[in-house]
Every structure is written in structure tokens, then in C-alpha cells.
Write a structure and sequence with these properties.
This protein is mostly helical. It is about 60% helix and about 10% strand. The chain is elongated. It starts with a helix and ends in a 16-residue tail after the last helix.
Length: about 140
């Protein structure tokens, strides 16, 4: 998947093979089998081109990572504890990235909406200068 995401376009087995062979020796059939497995799992789509296929990622690397994190979190018997443990493993830079992501998801006006909601939900204090306090006048 890393190679498919890296190229960010439909790729052939031959292209992935040649890219991988710059780092190590690998067989064409190995690359073909892995791409076919990825297709069977729904991680890539393929389109015939002559006698070969062009493979393309179904989702982004970020979406894939998010799905893995969500899957791991949802399998926990105590999701809150799992999050606390996960946050404890993060570097300061990762925690800052998390805070930035939360701000993005909440949107720019989320603070104002929260403050308005808190005002609406707060118990209403009686106005000391109201008619009811003036002896019913």
C-alpha cells in the first residue's frame, strides 16, 4: 500500500516491482499476489489495461490510519483507558497535532456555540430589581 499511496495514481505490478527492486530483490509474482490480495480486501481497485491491471488506492493513507485507530479503540473493553494510555505514549509534537486536529473538527465557531449553550443551560438568577422582589407592586 505504501507504494500505491506514494505514487498517488493508478500503478501496474511492473511499476511497483521496479520501484521495490531499487531496495531489494523481489519477484514479479510476489508483487502481483500482494496487489491481488489488496484488491480482494477492498483496499485497492483495479482496471484492466491490456493484459495487465492498473491498481489504485480506494482511500488515502490518512483515512486508512484513522480506520486502524478506530478499530483498535472500538475493540477495547475500556475505551477511555485506552485513549489515556495512547495519549501517554504520544510525544509533545503528536499531542500538539492532536489538539490541532480537535480544533479543526470542532470548527472555528465551536467555542462561541459552547458558550451560548452554557448560558442557556445555566440556572437563571432572579433579578433583584424585578417586580416580584418589590413587594408585588
Amino acid at each position: 500500500m505504501t507504494r500505491v499511496w506514494k505514487w498517488n495514481r493508478p500503478v501496474t505490478v511492473r511499476e511497483v516491482l521496479e520501484d521495490l527492486q531499487q531496495e531489494r530483490s523481489i519477484a514479479y509474482t510476489t508483487v502481483m499476489t500482494v496487489l491481488d490480495n489488496l484488491h480482494q480486501k477492498g483496499w485497492v481497485r483495479r482496471e484492466a489495461e491490456g493484459r495487465a491491471y492498473r491498481y489504485e488506492a480506494v482511500s488515502t493513507r490518512a483515512a486508512y490510519a484513522a480506520a486502524l485507530m478506530n478499530d483498535a479503540w472500538s475493540q477495547s473493553d475500556n475505551p477511555a483507558a485506552a485513549l489515556v494510555a495512547f495519549f501517554g505514549m504520544m510525544s509533545d509534537e503528536q499531542r500538539q497535532a492532536l489538539q490541532d486536529a480537535v480544533r479543526i473538527v470542532q470548527g472555528p465557531d465551536s467555542r462561541e456555540r459552547r458558550e451560548e449553550r452554557e448560558e442557556r443551560e445555566a440556572p437563571q438568577e432572579e433579578n433583584p430589581g424585578s417586580v416580584a422582589d418589590a413587594g408585588g407592586r
